[in-house]
Amino acid sequence: MRSVFLLFSAALLLLPMTGCGKSDRPELATASGRVTLDGNPIEGASVSFEPVSGGRPCSGMTDADGVYKITSYDPFDGAPVGDHYVAVIKISGEGAAVPAGVDPTMTLSDISGPGAENAKDKKEPETIYLVPRKYGSVKTSQLKVTVPSGGSSELNLELTAR
């Protein structure tokens, strides 16, 4: 009887994992292109695709020539077939390594208690946008691509500083 209980328990533990196979993934196709700003390639920018129909976002990084390759699940496996909103971001400065609203010099004792009201006097770390800020969000970038079922290496993004 104990072995039946152990077998049943093991089956219950494995049940949630059955939905995580590749069969649950959307149809993917290779997705890559080149990112330029005023005609010049952008190295080290993050390119994010968000499916218009909803679902898991995917992303890639640009190389020295501004070329990116999208990853969804496995390296460079592409993006779901269909339309995507796109964001491109490249930042530097102290703020690039710290989430917005967090002071990198803050200690646990600064989080609450007496003196917490002085936290508003602390200066936010500076974030320098090397690609215009509007491109950093799918809501403001006005960038959109369509990934065809056969894939594409021509999903170029031509950004302007204006």
Describe this structure in words.
There is one protein chain. This protein has 162 residues and is mainly beta. It has a domain at 25-98 and 117-149: Immunoglobulin-like (Sandwich). Helix content is 8%, strand content 28%. The chain is built from one helix and twelve strands, in the order αββββββββββββ. The strands form four sheets. Strands 2, 3, 6 and 12 form a four-stranded mixed sheet that branches. The radius of gyration is 22 Å and the shape is globular.
Attribute tags:
162 residues, mainly beta, Immunoglobulin-like, 4-stranded mixed sheet, 4-stranded antiparallel sheet, 1 helix, disordered N terminus
List the helices and strands and how they pair.
Elements: H1 2-14, E1 28-29, E2 32-37, E3 40-41, E4 46-51, E5 58-61, E6 67-69, E7 79-80, E8 82-89, E9 91-92, E10 128-129, E11 143-147, E12 157-159
Parallel strand pairs: 2-12
Antiparallel strand pairs: 1-7, 2-3, 2-6, 4-5, 4-8, 8-11, 9-10
Q: Sketch the major β-sheet.
A: 4 strands, mixed
**What is the CATH C level class of the domain at 25-98 and 117-149, in words?**
Mainly Beta
SSE-based structural type? mainly beta
User: What is the CATH architecture descriptor of the domain at 25-98 and 117-149?
Assistant: Sandwich
Shape: globular
CATH topology of the domain at 25-98 and 117-149: Immunoglobulin-like
The percent range for strand residues is 25-35%
Name the average pLDDT. 81
Helix content: under 10%
Number of strands: 12
How far apart the termini lie comes to 73 Å
Poorly predicted runs of 5 or more residues = 1-20, 104-111
- Rg measurement, Å: 22 Å
Helix segment tally: 1
